[in-house]
Prior knowledge:
The chain has 230 residues and is α+β, with helices and mostly antiparallel strands. It has helices at residues 8-13, 40-51, 63-78, 85-95, 150-155, 182-185, 190-197, 202-211; strands spanning 2-5, 19-24, 27-33, 98-105, 109-115, 118-124, 129-134, 162-167, 171-177, 220-226. Helix 7 runs antiparallel to helix 8 (202-211). The mean pLDDT is 92.
Amino acid sequence: MLINLQGYGHFQDGKNNQDFGFEEENMILIVDGCTECAYSESGGRMFAQLFKTLPEHDNPQKFEQNIKLTFDNTIKWLKEWYKDKEDLENFIQDNLLFTIIGLFDMKDSFEVRAYGDGYIFSINQNNILSYMRLNYGKRPPYYAYNYCSKDIKELFKNYKMKSFTFPKKMFKNIGIATDGIQPIAKGIVSQVDKLIKNNGTKEETQNAIIEDHYLFYDDVTLGILNNGGK
């Protein structure tokens, strides 16, 4: 299940939905554009569509390699249009700053790989729902910083992709989300918790969010994979 909704605050401010994602049988990928960027929704959507064309895009062991390949090829193409380094970096910071989170369904486990901020949530075999927040303050470690000036790259030189493994013998369902779900994680919109725990349908879960849409300033994207219906 994958849900993507524009935040009420973004709607009021005239901002486009800066989240995007795609869902396949064994994986979900979501991106969350930087709010301060001029066109991050465009860059995030382009990245996800290009990433999806790679032959092994659904392999968690190649997630970082595939991100790099997608960015390398994109930046190479952009250099044909932006010959000046400063102009290129301005384009990158206007368009290509976004969180990237992948969720993968493997034989015995769920795997999550993440660059940037967001949430991971889990339902264990006792049907207990837990939220894990990935938070880096006002400047998350967006992957595109690798293609910016030396000063910016230096800030994140020690950052490593975050990897999480959830054994299926311990967990029923695993989900990933952009930080727009904060009202859900904080228990402000509690009916969504109940639907997540009880395998609510996409329509039910989406309608529960829309019912309290005014509580969500930021865009809301969440994706859930379940353990074969167990």
